[in-house]
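Reading a protein record of the kind used here takes only a little practice. Each token is a code from a learned vocabulary of local backbone shapes. With that in mind, consider the following protein and its fold in token form:
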Amino acid sequence: MKRQLATALPTVLFSASMLILSATPWAADPAAGAAGWLKEYPQADGSKPRSCTTCHGRDLTQPGQHANTGKVIEPLAPSVNPQRLTDAAKIEKWLRRNCRWTIGRECTADEKADFIAYIKTQ
């Protein structure tokens, strides 16, 4: 039994380290988030291209305004609005909705991480 465990142990440890490596979070890139934030995305319906700044503006410490509804959007910058980026469900909900509306598809996990990293720097 001891012999079998000694033989199997390196395999188990190697497998566990692979799981840990694959579960290691990727590094979010605030610069990539900023670039994605400013990029204008063409719209499939031919309407004016949109970017995140269309509704949120370039200065995330200031309120924005939704392009369609005119509804005021509170500042996204955690430095002036500490409630931002504190609720994972809200973050996921709004990224899903806003990516679809702005980009025309759901954002990838990397894009979401980059956007959040950028917003956190504001």
In short: The radius of gyration is 21 Å. The chain has five helices and two strands. Confidence is low (pLDDT under 50) at residues 5-24.
